[in-house]
Amino acid sequence: MTQLKDAVVLITGATGGFGQQLTRQLLMTESRLILTDLDAVMLEQQRAVIGQEISTGKVLACLVADLSTAEGCDLLYKQVQALNTPVDILINNAGIAVFGRMDEVPPEQWERLMQINLLAPMRLTSLFVADMIARQSGHIVNISSAAGWVAIAGLTHYSTSKFGLRGFSEGLLDEVNPYNIRVTAVYPFFSRTPILQSKRYGTLAESTKDIPDNLLTDPAAVIQRTLQGIERDRLHVFPDRVAYIIHLSQRFAPWLLDWINSGFKRRIRRGTDRSL
Questions:
Q1: b/e burial code for range 173-206 (CB count within 10 A of at least 16 → b)
Q2: What angle do CA 244, 247, 251 make, to 5 degrees?
Q3: What CA–CA distance (Å, rounded) separates 184 from 139?
Q4: What pLDDT does residue 260 have?
Q5: Judging by beta carbons within 10 Å of its beta carbon (0-12, 13-18, 19+), is residue 165 exposed, middle or buried?
Q6: In 3D, which of 150, 96, 136 has the Cα closest to residue 120?
Q7: Apex CA 185: angle with CA 34 and CA 176, to 5°?
Q8: Residue among 118, 94, 132, 121 at smallest CA distance from 7
Q9: Which of 67, 11, 1, 72 is nearest to 43 (CA)?
Q10: Pairing verdict, β 181-186 and 236-237
Q11: How far, rounded to the nearest angstrom, does the alpha carbon of residue 267 sit from its chain's CA centroid?
């Protein structure tokens, strides 16, 4: 079992929707946090606001790094090393999305997506896992998506990155498990976070409505179940009902998943609000 109390946890994408909940709930478990994102002002504001509400745990540092480049990942690692505080849990949470037919999304946009969503977790893991292997202890957490199990039109690039993160997590566990290092991959469905306002491009964007609100999940509940999965050393965590249904359908009834996928695409194109 992974202990969260007193654990040093590095959270990427700390000011996003899931990042804020990770910060809040990990402080409540008395973890010691290192927060990183692109905006120093937002990081410090988050530390101040949450610090006023929660007296347990501690934010050790707020670090600025651009994880869309190899240099940015290396810089973050060096900043953390300078703290002289070994990281017990690395949470690769930073992620972005774009929506649109694959040939209509500008290459620089989807290439940046792949850098942040897939290559950054791989780069950071390769840097931090060496220290964990030396200590024979650690935990790598990758925030993937239900889109890492099923892809829909308009999310080809995003799903590719999340499918890749799932495969990376599975292979990584086989490599580091002998060193007492755990790996957890998390697959939430669409949640009420700023990623829903991601850039849209082309004909698909024009014909597709917003996801009905009653299909969206609560970020607080998603992160609560995520932390439970981390504590229990689960490899795969499905933190909401829809994600779990997608997973079961993919494994045992692919034909049902095709039916659900078709229905979901019709729903978001119409913008209806009936239950799934």
A1: beebeeeebbbbbbbbbbbebebeeeebbeebbe
A2: 140
A3: 8
A4: 57
A5: buried
A6: 96
A7: 80
A8: 132
A9: 11
A10: parallel
A11: 25
CB 109 within 8 A of CB 89: no
Q: Which two tokens stand for residue 97?
A: 């999305």
| Residues in CB range of 73: below 8 A, 6 or more apart | 65, 67, 120, 123, 124, 127
DSSP letter for each residue of 80-137:
HHTTT---SEEEE-----EES-TTTS-HHHHHHHHIIIIIHHHHHHHHHHHHHHHHT-
Q: With the CA atoms of 185, 123, 100 and 244 taken in that order, what torsion angle do they form, in degrees rounded to the nearest 10?
A: 0
Identify residue 37 by its one-letter amino acid code.
D
Query: Which amino acid is present at 161?
Result: S
pLDDT in tens, 44-103: 999 999 989 999 999 999 999 999 999 999 999 999 999 999 999 999 999 999 998 999
DSSP summary character for residue 29: T
pTM of the model: 0.89
Residues of the chain with pLDDT under 50: 271-276
**DSSP annotation of 216:** P
Amino acid at 152: I
Q: Which helix (H) or strand (E) holds 140?
A: strand 138-143
Q: In three state form, how does the secondary structure of 184-208 look?
A: EEECCCCECCHHHHCEECHHHHHHC
End-to-end CA distance of the chain: 35
Residues 6+ apart with CB under 8 A from 231: 1, 2, 3, 4
- Using one digit for the tens of pLDDT, what is the confidence trace for 97-109? 999 899 999 999 9
Q: Round to whole Å and give the CA distance between 30 and 134.
A: 25
